[in-house]
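Weekly modeling sync, notes
Attendees: S.R. (lead), two postdocs, one rotation student

Agenda item 3: backlog of single-chain predictions. S.R. asked that every request posted to the team notebook include the full sequence so nobody has to chase files. The rotation student volunteered to paste the first one in as an example of the format we agreed on. Action items at the bottom.

Example entry:
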Amino acid sequence: MKIICVGRNYGAHIEELANQRPSEPVLFLKPDSAVILKNNPFIIPTFSNDIHFEVEVLVKINKIGKHIDRTFAHNYYDSIGLGIDFTARDLQSTLKAKGLPWERAKAFDGSAQIGNFVSKSSFEEVQNIEFRLERNNEVVQVGNTKDMLWQIDELIEYISKYFTLKIGDIIFTGTPAGVGRVAPQDVLTGYLADLESFSVKIK
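Predicted structure, as returned to the notebook:
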């Protein structure tokens, strides 16, 4: 199982971090060691003083595909989830300034919270799903998949040009505005529509 992440896929998030709007999807990978085991906390790593939460809609691939046309992309997934791409923002900023890859800031152990998946048939339209993240019962991020710069089927088409998609692979589709710093004892709870997808404690 591999995790393919999409950066800068919501305009407001691009603006809040003062990033340049990309002309094509920004991709990076997380290893399976990035996944937080079920019911485990997120442990702030010693190498960062500025870990940010980034809530994202997830897509789980259900069949092998390469060079998938977007017309048929909907056949390659049947479940939708929610998760957090934890990011060492201070380290990422240093790496970006040097023109270096982001992996140390994005793919470290425990950097991927993956919530429960539900059938995509539960939603009238996968490109119109509301989602949100609460920190200590206060809403901090709100998004809707309709606001993606590249929609899910477009992402599958693009990603499969470079990486063969296999059963169980997960795509993190990007985060909306509102990202912020975590602190010990925070509790982050994610909702896909109004269904709780995950709750994770910060330590």
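Discussion: group reviewed the output briefly. Residues 99 and 189 are 34 Å apart (CA to CA).
Action items: rotation student to repeat for the remaining queue; S.R. to check formatting next week.
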